[in-house]
Write a structure and sequence with these properties.
Length: 518
């Protein structure tokens, strides 16, 4: 049999936009501020932008970092990088310069895209011994001027050069997304086009993302939940996408009403803020039909309140993590009040178990580790074979989360092996915060845990043992952390103890510590 070109069978992230544009050329695909693109316009702009990237030296396989808030520019760059065959490296814009610089160095990025509001942070981080040589300025939701010394998005998107088809395969890396672990340094999860697209299929089927949706994207696109559970699948099926950078009630509630939004995702903290806002008026949100939440469990009282005040809204709880692109399990609308607090069951393209240390399935109600097999899964951690091997030990991906499974196969997350705290929808590694606090010379010992909180769902809480003869205040600890790391990682509360609860081997018993503090 004669060989055929791999491009004939290719399915990449960029291809799904092209195919949607051919099916729905005149449908509005993206709205952001005063910008409106039909799918045909969106696709054509992405092609020109990809050619512009090639002109300034972006080659196939290059890593290009993005430090920017939500915008049409971010959305276009995401697909243009895929069309160029380059690798997206999205970065949390709440990080400090030294934290951003670590990711830039580790990913080997020579190009950094940013917006006007984050340009100073981008330049500061790039100057901390990274390989960044060039910057790309992205337009924002609100009118802004290009930053001098950076490539102008609009000029790049006006490029008319012919762009050669990249030699892409589904197994090629599409993005490297950095995620915090128990270690002080983040890990870069390598996700292929295949992994991301199989995950899109699971989202479309199990989360019922549909062409008729008018979807509001308000949580940061640097995070794989908004980018790949919602925005990507919505482009795949041809939804209309409204993008905003401000997930605050005074911005979201008017947008939900004015644009007739039918589909919206936010962590419980944002849903709670909407319900408590004086602008909240259920009568004006009658078109909202699908509500999604994740990152942490929605309190039962809030589920009941949403059901009463927004009775037409069907809710989904989504659970997963970056390494699985990120959706793993889902709790659907019919189970919200029947199985409150549950993460649901595995989605269509995921197989999930709860196992003991010998990789045996635990009995219903017993605690074990949640493990997965799926085409969604990452290839591994970038330049980190040791942690990759540990994550896939035994032929399954180890989530690091502890859970229980019931007789119906519904999983509830009960704790985290890695002591990860999910505060306000953001992952905070307790060890990273502990190491920062240990920099204070007055500190003898410290343990950081997450405690239930009505606003943050989990509040980062530090328990500190002060050295004999030294003096340290809660204000001192919080100010020190805020000065050197992202504000969301800094403790919301600091408690001073004489000693920490430990087991005979000296390990801090964090579960007992949480029990003492609640």
């Amino acid at each position: 049999m004669s060989a055929i070109s791999p491009a004939i069978r290719r399915q990449s992230i960029a291809d799904i936009l092209r195919r949607t544009a051919l099916r729905l050329p005149n449908k509005v695909g993206v709205i952001c501020g005063d910008t409106r693109w039909t799918y045909a316009e969106f696709d054509a702009l992405v092609s020109r932008l990809a050619a512009g990237l090639a002109r300034i030296g972006v080659a196939e396989g290059d890593t290009v970092a993005v430090l920017a808030r939500n915008s049409h520019g971010f959305a276009a760059l995401r697909f243009a990088l895929a069309r160029r065959g380059a690798v997206l490296v999205p970065i949390n814009f709440m990080l400090k310069a030294e934290e951003v610089a670590f990711i830039l160095r580790h990913a080997g990025a020579r190009m950094l895209a940013t917006d006007s509001g984050l340009a100073a942070l981008a330049r500061e981080a790039a100057g901390l011994d990274t390989r960044v040589e060039q910057f790309i300025w992205l337009p924002s939701e609100e009118a802004s001027e290009p930053v001098p010394g950076m490539h102008d998005f609009h000029q790049l998107a006006a490029c008319t050069d012919a762009l050669a088809e990249p030699q892409l395969a589904g197994t090629d890396v599409a993005q490297i997304v950095y995620t915090s672990g128990t270690e002080s340094s983040p890990k870069g999860a390598m996700l292929t086009h295949d992994a991301v697209l199989w995950q899109y299929v699971s989202c479309v089927i199990d989360a019922e993302i549909a062409e008729a949706d008018v979807m509001l994207h308000a949580l940061p696109l640097y995070h794989c939940a908004q980018l790949d559970v919602f925005f990507g699948p919505a482009v795949y099926v041809g939804s209309t996408n409204l993008i905003t950078a401000k997930p605050t009630p005074d911005n979201l509630l008017p947008l939900l009403q004015q644009h007739g939004i039918t589909s919206f995702f936010a962590p419980p903290t944002v849903w709670i803020a909407l319900l408590r806002s004086p602008l909240f008026d259920p009568a004006r949100l009658h078109q909202l039909a699908k509500g999604y939440y994740g990152a942490s469990i929605m309190p039962v009282a809030v589920l009941q309140e949403i059901a009463e005040r927004l009775p037409s809204v069907r809710l989904w709880n989504l659970y997963g993590q970056t390494e699985i692109a990120p959706l793993a399990t889902l709790l659907g609308p019919d189970d919200q009040l029947r199985k409150p607090g549950s993460a649901g069951r595995a989605v269509i393209n995921v197989q999930t178990r709860v196992v003991d240390d010998a990789m045996r399935d635990v009995a219903p109600g017993q605690v074990g580790e949640i493990v997965h097999r799926s085409p969604h899964l990452m290839l591994g951690y970038f330049h980190d074979d040791e942690r990759t091997q540990a994550a896939f030990e035994g032929g399954w991906f180890h989530s690091g989360d502890l859970g229980v499974i019931d007789e119906e196969g519904y999983i509830t997350v009960v704790d985290r092996k890695k002591d990860m705290i999910k505060s306000g929808g953001e992952n905070v590694a307790s060890r990273e915060v502990e190491e920062m606090i240990y920099r204070l010379p007055q500190v003898s010992e410290v343990a950081v845990v997450g405690l239930p909180d009505p606003k943050w769902v989990e509040a980062v809480t530090a328990v500190v043992i002060v050295k004999q003869g030294q003096v340290l205040s809660e204000t001192d600890v919080i100010a020190h952390c805020t000065a050197h790391m992202a504000a969301f990682k800094a403790p919301k509360r600091v408690v001073f103890f004489d000693q920490l609860p430990k087991n005979p081997s000296g390990k801090v018993l964090k579960r007992r510590l949480r029990e003492q503090l609640v």
